Amino acid sequence: MPGLEDLYREIILDHYRTPRNRGELPPPARMAEGHNPLCGDEIHVYLDVQGDTIVDVKISGQGCSISQSSASMMSAAVKGKDINDVLALVKRFKQMMSIEEENADTTGEIDTSIKLGDLEALQGVVKFPVRIKCATLAWNTLVQALESPER
Amino acid sequence: MTFDSSVVRRDFPVLQRVINGKPLVYLDSANTSQKPDSVITAIDHFLRNSYGPINRSAYLLASEATDAYEGARAKVRKFINAPQVHEIVFTKNATEALNLIARSWGAANLGSGDAVVLTHMEHHANIVPWQMLAAEKGFEIRWIPLTPDGQLDLSDLNTLLDGAKAISFTAMSNVLGTITPVEQIVSAAHRAGAIAIVDACQSVPHMPTDVQAWDADFVAFSSHKMCGPSGIGVLWGRESLLDAMPPFLGGGNMIADVKLEGFKCAELPAKFEAGTPPIVEAVGLGAAVDYLTSLGMESVRAHEVEITAYAMRSLKDRYGERITIHGPTSPACRGATLSIALEGVHPHDVSQILDQENICVRAGHHCAKPLMRILGVTATARASFYLYNTESDADILTDTLVGAFDLFGM
Fold this sequence. Notes:
The complex is a heterodimer of chains A (151) and B (410).
Chain A: H1 10-17, E1 30-35, E2 42-50, E3 53-62, H2 65-78, H3 83-96, H4 104-107, H5 132-147
Antiparallel strand pairs in A: 1-2, 2-3
Helix pairs in contact in A: 1-2, 2-5, 3-5
Chain B: H1 5-9, E1 18-19, E2 22-23, E3 25-26, H2 37-49, H3 60-79, E4 88-91, H4 94-109, E5 115-119, H5 128-137, E6 140-144, H6 157-161, E7 166-170, H7 182-191, E8 195-199, H8 211-214, E9 218-222, E10 233-237, H9 239-244, E11 255-259, E12 262-265, H10 279-295, H11 297-319, E13 323-325, E14 337-342, H12 347-355, E15 359-360, E16 362-364, H13 369-375, E17 380-384, H14 391-408
Parallel strand pairs in B: 3-15, 5-6, 5-7, 7-8, 8-9
Antiparallel strand pairs in B: 1-2, 4-10, 9-10, 11-12, 13-14, 14-17, 16-17
Helix pairs in contact in B: 2-10, 3-10, 4-5, 11-14, 12-14
C-alpha cells in the first residue's frame, strides 16, 4: 500500500507471520511483562541467563505487527549473547529509534559500530512516531527481565 | 424523520479538511466528537464579548457570564428531562462525575459487608473509582456478566443486587455499542433497595435521554462526546441524595460560610462546584445542546441506526467470515460503535492502514481492559459513527480494509 512500504518491510512481515523463539521458559528463568498502556500490547520476555550469557530466550504475548516482529528480531539477536553486548545493542537500537537516553551519564557511549542486521528494517518506524513505542516495547521488557532475579 | 448527514457534515469545519487530496473520514466519535460551527462561534462570541467571573461580582460582564453559565445548566436540564435545574452539577468530565459519586455518596454510605454491582462492559471510569474506594472501605464489588452476543446477562440480576447498596452501569457500551435496558435494571435495583447510577457518556450524545423515565438516581456524561468542548461534564443526581451527601472538592464557590472553626456548604449545585468552574466550556456545551436539539435526538438516533445497518451490511457483504463485529448484531439494539476484528490483522495495523485514507478510528483497549480480556483480545479497531457520518464514510472504510487483508492476509 503506497506510503506504508517504509513501515511494513517484507522482513518485518516475515517475523510477524513466523515469530522466532515463541513460547515460555519455566522457572527459575527470569521473566518480565511489558505493557503498552496506550494500545494494550503485551509482551512477556523469558530469559535463561547463565553467568554473563543469555543462553535462551522466549517471547509470548500479543500485539501488532511492529511490536511482535520487533520482539522476534530481538530474540534472535540476543540469544547466546553476552549481557554487556546485549545492553550495548539495546542502546544502539534505541538510538536508531530516535530515543535519547534520559540519563546519559550512566548509559555511556553508544557503540555505532554494532551491526543491527535485520533490525535495520525497523528504522522506517521512526517516520510513524505513534508506532515507536510498539517497536521498543520488547526491548524495554528485555532490560526489565535482565534486571529481574530468577523466579 | 431523519436528516441528510451530508448537509449536517457541512456544519463541522474540521470535516471540510482535505489531506493529500482526500477527505477526512472521522470515525472516532465514541472517543470524542467534532464540533459544529455554532459551538465554535458561541465560545468565540462569549470570549470576545461577555467573559467574566460567575456568581461573585456585580458588574455587567460578571452578570452576563453568570447568565450564560446558568443558562447552559438550564439547557442541560431540559435536554435530559431532569426535574430541577439545581440537580445539574458541572464537573470536569464524566470520569470526574463518577468519581464524585464514589468519593461523596460512596464514602458516606459504603463499608465492610456492603456491595456495589458493576458490569463486565464498564469503562475504566466506572470501575477504578469503585475499586479505589473498595480498597479503603472493604466493600464487595459484584459483576454482571455478558451473553455471547454482547448483551448484559441479567439472569442473576436479583441475586447480584441482593444486599447491594448501589449498581453502577453503562447505558451504552463504548466498545460493543450495546444499549442496556436501563429502566429494567434501575427498577430491579430499587426493588432491592439499591441506588442506580448510569454512566450515560455513550448514550446521551446519540439518543433521547429522559432521566425521569429511567428513574435513575445519578447520571453522568461528558460534553466532548456530544459536539461540545472538552473540559466539562455533567452529573445529574436526585436532590434528596445530593443534599445528603458530603461535598467532594473543597474551595471557593462551594461554601456558604467559612470560619476558623469550620465551613458551611453552599446550596446545590454550587456545593459540588468548587473553584472557578469551566465557564467557557459550559457556554459551548449549551450551544451543543441547542445544536443537537435543533436536529432532534430522535432523528440523530434514526440516522445512526441507518448508518450502522449500512456499515455492518457493507462490511459483512464484502468480507464475510474474515471480519468480526463485536457486540449485538441488530442495529436496533446497539449504538453506532463498531469494534471490528480482521482475521490475521492486528487492530493497530488496521488503524495504520486506514490512516492512509484519512480514516480516523481508535485502535486499542478503549479503557475497558476487563471487557477486552473477556472478549479474548488485547485490542480492537473501533469505528464509531455520528450525526455527521455519511454512507460515503462507511464505503471508504469498507474499501480501505482491502489493503489490510492484502498486506497481512495469511
